Amino acid sequence: MVTLYDVARRAAVSTATVSRVVHGQDRVREATRLRVQQAIDELGYVPDGAGQSLSRRRKDIIGMMCLEREIAGQHDIEAECLLYYDEVQRGVQEQIRDSQWLLLSTFMRANGPGEADVSGLDPLSGKVDGILVGEGFADSPSIQRLARRLPVVVIAGTLGAQAADVVAADNFSGAAALVTHLIADHGRRRLFHVGGPPDSPDAIQRRLALDHVLRGHPGCGLIGSAPGIFSVASGEQAAEQLLARHRPALPDAVVCANDQMAIGVLRALTAAGVAVPGEVAVTGFDDLYPARLAGPPLTTVRQPMRTLGERACARLLDRIAQPGLTPAVQLLPTELVLRSSCGCPPGTVTRQPVRTLKPR
Q: Given strand 300-302, what is the order of strands in its sheet?
């Protein structure tokens, strides 16, 4: 194995000079740096990443905690994290692609609100320089304690609710624009809501927006609602409850808190012979890739999932470098994506920027 000493001998310099070149320090004359780099290339020297990290008292690893929800007593292989978090993690990876940083992800499980298994927090915190925290953990006392001893950035957290940085999408404005479109443009007045987990900040903001729009439209309202956990299976269950309770007086539209549940609703309604959007419109939130492949293609709200990952990662790296930074909130804009599941003509694919509203 080629060592630092071999490079130093080949370049006729000290090991300290080789180390400064490897670490990119500027206290080396250009001619010397080129000679050292030539020796590195000729010998095929690969710096010891662990040793470099130790010398900087840093591990060069960031962690990411994702929450995988399950239907109680039933493992749901289409859990929320497998699609939404896949996009977010791609954004994180893009941010660190050309750097020395590595990403260590862990998935924690929850069978219901407030039941997230956070037992893996302490072991993870000992292996990383900072942690990205996914939605569903933001109000956990464990996260609050963690943020006091390690750089933490919360993705999709409750804005201003914790002493940590938050990067989130504008869920309230996006959901409000979607519901307004159903009422104002399609005359859908009797709505059914499929909500997300009650401890999910994203789901909470989307439901607040629904209620806010309905208050401004007399004669419109909810005929019912059902809980979900952001998975296709929980959307199917919600639709089955809807059919059992409200058929034949079905709602005009089913508003789902995310795309995966909306796809589950589409599947259940189609299996029951209900025409979408002829009898019932269906909408989602996220604009995951499967939304455009659904039958019919799904009207939804696009949140910038990869950008969430990129911005959160960038902020975490800033906080690692400057631990004294004041916690900040970044709220990213959303887009209303119109397709035919809401009643727009077949073939419609329109993206409309959403104006930011103040949550109420």
A: 300-302, 335-338, 350-353
Contact by Cβ (8 Å): 92, 310? yes
Q: Evaluate whether 340 touches 291 at the Cβ level (below 8 Å).
A: no
Which residue from 260, 297, 332 is spatially nearest to 85, judged by alpha carbons?
260
d(CA 108, CA 143): 13
Task: Please report, as a single letter, which amino acid is at residue 53.
Answer: S
Radius of gyration of the chain measured on its C-alpha atoms: 25
Can you read off the two tokens belonging to residue 87? 């996009």
Tell me, yes or no, whether 34 lies in a domain. Answer: yes
Tokens 């508003």 correspond to 255
- DSSP element (H, E) containing 126: none
Q: What span, in angstroms and rounded, lies between the C-alpha atoms of 156 and 334? A: 13
SS3 63: strand
Q: Which domain holds residue 43?
A: 4-47
Q: Identify how many contiguous H helices and E strands the chain contains and give both numbers.
A: 12, 13
> What are 140's two structure tokens?
């956990």
Say if CB 173 and CB 356 are below 8 A apart.
yes
Q: Say if residue 359 is preceded by a cis peptide, omega within 30 of 0.
A: no
C-alpha 35/C-alpha 13 separation (Å) is 9
pLDDT along the chain (360 residues), means of 10: 86 88 76 89 71 58 78 49 82 89 78 51 71 69 71 77 80 96 96 91 93 94 93 93 92 96 96 96 96 95 95 93 86 96 92 82
Domain containing 128 — which CATH number? 3.40.50.2300
